[in-house]
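Materials and Methods. Structural model of Guanine nucleotide-binding protein beta g protein beta. The 345-residue sequence of Guanine nucleotide-binding protein beta g protein beta from Anaeramoeba flamelloides was retrieved and submitted for structure prediction as follows.
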Amino acid sequence: MSLSQQIEEKKNELKLLKEELANKRSGGNSLILRTTSSDVQSFNSSPLKIRRNLTGHLGKIYGMHWATDSTKLVSASQDGRLIVWNAKSTNKLLAIALRSNWVMTTGFAPSGKMVASGGLDNVCSVFDITDTEDENLSAFRELNGHTGYISCTRFLDDQQILTSSGDMSCILWDINSGSKITEFLDHNGDVMFLAIKPGDSNIFLSASCDGTTKLWDIRAGNCEYTFEGHQSDVNTVSFFPDGNCFGTGSDDATCKLFDIRVGAEVNNYTHDEILCGITSIDFSLSGRFLFASYDNFNCYMWDVLKGKEVMVMEGHNNRVSSLGVSPDGYALCTASWDKDIKIWA
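The predicted structure was written out as tokens:
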């Protein structure tokens, strides 16, 4: 066989393998985890209860984010304030007056030295909070470049921050200079949320109203893979603790689990009584549980392997807009339009 014939044979073999992989991705069993985990013991109940109630906001709370010390957290409310809390003592450490009341998101820097906010003013405001005695704290930097609302802010470190926007883009910023480093432009709808890969800040996910979630590598600047499967807006995304999988929550009333290594959905989480959208999700530290907040004022705790509801977490009397598991895994925070923040453990 000549060299050209060998090359042609390998090309045909590669084509067949690609077609086989595409068929498996499109028609594969999205409930594969339920099948493979049939012998694993189920969780039928959980002692998770409300341990702390953080009160002080005067408007709907739209976002919260834990600090890496698992003690402090920051919340953003349409009362026009960011509040930095001690979640254990319930004390307010700092209240920051924002230039716009229409705030939608907030984020804590990994160092704990900065917080950021964004909203309908299309600006990401970054605050240096090392001096918590300053009651009239002004933004250290205002990052202005999006043409739509800011939906999510996530720090890579004290020098760089990612933002997502209703203008269908994500932007990586240099905080010190206030300039754009890279724009990420592949979505066809509002980008609603960001998640940075644990242990590798070069990789992040974006969830969008175009019904997809995209995987990006900051070094390449391009979309590495697009994950489909939802029938409506994807509002939220969170990496699984090991970084190999991720969860999503959508207005189609389902949460899904995707495996990045095979580029496919491997489980979903819903039942007939859930008729509303999901606003926020996060995983337990072990990865066994998925927590999701809903428009029906409740949060659900799901068994990731079994795809079964473990418990309904009732306590808020309005839409639960944001939730997050503390980095040490000991607590869950939920924030709501009822103006309250609850700590569960």
